[in-house]
Design a protein that fits this description.
With 265 residues, this protein is α/β, with parallel strands linked by helices. The chain has one domain: Survival protein SurE-like phosphatase/nucleotidase (Stationary-phase Survival Protein Sure Homolog, Chain: A). It is built from 6 helices and 13 strands. Strands 5-6-2-1-7-8-9-13-10 form a 9-stranded mixed sheet, with helices on both faces. The protein has a two-stranded antiparallel ribbon with strand order 3-4. A two-stranded antiparallel sheet has the order 11-12. A hairpin with a 2-residue loop joins strand 5 and strand 6. The longest helix has 16 residues. It is globular and about 45 Å long.
């Protein structure tokens, strides 16, 4: 039976991971959850952990209908530990998410959600990162700029449309199980009910992220940053362009490559 490990970077208690784990479990797969004890967003593929006398600490728990582990480590480190058999048999497939917020464009470089999937791929494991776009036009039609972010942050997380993202992940999972070793899908889904989703499209990565960092305040010995929406024009065929049109985006990504350039002698 296919062994599936589910992780995230929002923490083991986040609602999205419960929806994703249950979606995999409903397909009759052998599913286990191992996720950070606390939020670990923006960790990329970092290998960090809280240790006690050199031991990475974890506790058994239950996530939805699935047995799990709450781990004092980053998502990437958890995937490495899983590959070593820490949480039972090493996984054949890794699912990461469902993240609260899109992971799209070149900004996936910084995502702990995507970082976990890419870490799995480095060992030849198939993986899927799944994110719910809480800033999609459908969810923020009456808002703009930083006001949209502030307004959407007041939405109760349990009421978001996690089921829409979980349903698409469940549809893609059988294909992923049979995909070539090391295949990684990055999936972004608008925060809308399933019957309001326009569909899904294969997408390229936008050359920018959905949000960007800005300086809110700067002094002689400090800086305070803020997150604001990126106002760059959407490029047709990219993940962010499809999201803006109400579609889910699915992008195949790879963990590592190299630049084929001629270096000085």
């Amino acid at each position: 039976m296919t062994r599936v490990l589910v992780t995230n970077d929002d923490g083991v208690g986040a609602p999205g991971i419960r929806w994703l784990a249950n979606a995999a479990h409903a397909l009759g797969l052998d599913v286990v959850v191992a996720a950070p004890q606390h939020e670990a967003s923006g960790m990329s593929a970092a290998l960090t952990a809280v240790t006690d006398e050199g031991r990475v600490v974890f506790a058994q728990t239950t996530v939805g209908d699935v047995p799990g582990y709450s781990v004092s480590a980053s998502p990437g480190y958890i995937i490495v530990l899983a590959g070593l058999g820490t949480f039972g048999p090493p996984p054949d497939v890794v699912l990461s998410g469902i993240n609260r917020g899109a992971n799209a464009g070149y900004a996936i470089l910084h995502s702990g959600t995507v970082g976990a999937a890419l870490t799995a791929a480095n060992s030849g494991v198939r993986a899927m990162a799944v994110s719910l776009d809480v800033l999609s036009p459908a969810a923020a039609s009456a808002e703009s700029g930083g006001a949209a972010i502030a307004a959407l942050d007041t939405v109760e997380d349990e009421t978001r449309n996690w089921g829409t993202a979980a349903e698409l992940a469940g549809r893609l999972l059988p294909w992923l199980v049979d995909a070539p070793a090391g295949t990684v899908l990055n999936v972004n889904v608008p925060d809308v009910p399933s019957d309001k989703l326009a569909g899904w499209r294969q997408a390229s990565l936008a050359p920018f992220g959905q949000v960007q960092m800005a300086i809110a305040e700067k002094g002689a010995d400090f800086v305070r940053t803020a997150i604001e929406e990126n106002g760059a024009r959407q490029i047709p065929g990219t993940d962010l362009a499809w999201l803006a049109q109400g579609y889910a985006s699915v992008t195949a990504v790879c963990p590592l490559s190299y630049a084929d350039v001629e270096l000085p002698t």
